[in-house]
Amino acid sequence: MGWGCRRALCGVLLFLFGSLATGVQAAELDTLIKVGADKTAAAQASQRRIDSTAQQSDKLLRQFQLVNKQIEGLQVYNAQLTRQIDNQRQTMADIAESVENAALIERQIVPLSLNMLDALAQFIRLDLPFKITERQGSIEQVRENMDSARFSAAEKSRQVLELYAIESEYSATIEQFDGVLAIAGRQRQGVFLRIGRIALLFQTADQSVTEVWNKDSGQWQTVAAGEYRRAVADAIRMAKKQAPLDMIKLPIAPPLGATRSDSAAQVVS
Predict the structure, then answer these.
(1) Is 161 within 8 Å of 117 (Cβ atoms)?
(2) Contact 200/192 with Cβ under 8 angstroms?
(3) Could you give the CA distance from residue 23 to residue 25 in angstroms, rounded to a whole number?
(4) Nearest 5°: CA angle at 211, between 168 and 267?
(5) How far is the CA of 207 from the CAs of 32, 117, 146, 198, in angstroms?
């Protein structure tokens, strides 16, 4: 083979080897590109998983924080409920004790009220004899109420205290009222005059008869016609609000231990 042929054959071989090398490089490049694309896709997929995991973690963290706040709120609420329950238990205990004490007090109120009525009735018997029927009737009415189931123990006690209040008012008031008094076996119509619990007097309409209650003897005593007749009449007018209040001189007994120069004493009506 000549030198020219050999040179041509070498060129062909070089071309073939060059083409082969170019094809191998292209294949390797495709492989590298594919591998790079696969890695990029894998990296993107991994990033997506990381992002998803991060989002889930953030979501779980927010849920955890929310649950923690709810737990804290529930703990505060439960503590408040515990205090309320303890307070209610104490209130229930206090109520139970009050009910027990109330039952005990209620059992004692009625006997005490009855004793107070007996004492008041005794007081009226020893007091000035004015409105005896009315006052004793009020006591008997309240005494009947003591046996009635319609009234509570508190109401029964209130009625007794009301009678005491009424009797107490008699000590600081002046009162006149029409009535009849038996004098020397004869019923005389006239006006009774009560000055607190200091004096109780009676005078007929024509002022011809004037009587005064004597505490010592427990009887009515006639006042001499010329004595105190005008004073008693003036006091009756004051009690009727027909005259202004003024000093009056009446035939009353002096206080215990006092010295009495005559049968009169001055009182303010």
Answers:
(1) no
(2) yes
(3) 5
(4) 50
(5) 149, 38, 45, 21
- Residue in 225, 235, 147 with CA at minimum distance from that of residue 198: 235
| Max CA pair span of the chain | 198
The C-alpha atoms of residue 87 and residue 83 are separated, in whole angstroms, by 6
- Which of 205, 206, 183, 178 has the alpha carbon at shortest distance from 194? 178
Q: For 193-203, what is each residue's pLDDT tens digit?
A: 999 888 999 99
Q: In what order do the strands lie in the sheet with 199-204?
A: 174-183, 186-195, 199-204, 210-214, 219-222
Q: Which two tokens stand for residue 206?
A: 């024509």
Residue 110: both structure tokens together: 């009625």
Collapsing DSSP to helix, strand or coil, 202 comes out as strand
Q: Looking at the whole model, is its pTM more than 0.70?
A: no
For residue 188, what pLDDT band results from cuts at 50, 70 and 90?
very high
User: Mapping DSSP to helix (H, G, I), strand (E, B) and coil, where does residue 260 land?
Assistant: coil
